[in-house]
Amino acid sequence: MTEALFKKRKTKAARINRILKKLFPRAKIVLKYSNNWELLVAVILSAQCTDKKVNEVTAELFKKYRTLEDYVSADPKKFMQDIRSTGFYRNKTKNILAAAKAVKRRYGGRVPDAMEEILKLPGVARKTANVVLGNAYGVVEGIAVDTHVRRLSRLLGLTNETDPVKIERDLMVILPKKEWFGFAYRLIDYGRKYCPARPHDHARCPLSKRI
Q: Which of 85, 142, 162, 163 has the greatest count of CB atoms below 10 A from its CB?
């Protein structure tokens, strides 16, 4: 990124963030959970699935599997059926149940609170790690790049990258660290309310008129 492009993107990011703060002053995670392990499960399930559907599934899942030990001893075939409607259920089952065993054996039943450690868990990449660390422990080491953040960051001219890790890197450079956590949720809410992936008139989106 050239110095000129960096300055341009930094100025634009600040303007976008100010507008988003006014539009969504209380933006936050919408996944429902009651402890850090359930948060991790919900975030893993949210891959290629809407948060609404995940909440529908976990409403029953978290009643059936109440403790970490319930996941450790779960029957994979039954668990697979319990989460089937979230999509990619075979891989999600494998990762969640393996992560449960890892959390129990390596971390004494506590979801890791450091990026280096949580990334060692099955099914956990940087997006999942950022969501869990930020919401569970207030640890902010990056920006959670989900499908909304990925799409809108490109649309708004904040990055030219397509890889989530590279998009995260670009955003981290142009946004102050204190804004990393909230920016992702504000952009997600913006995508849901005003600028969805489906075809629509972008000229009617609030940011299109003001940046």
A: 142
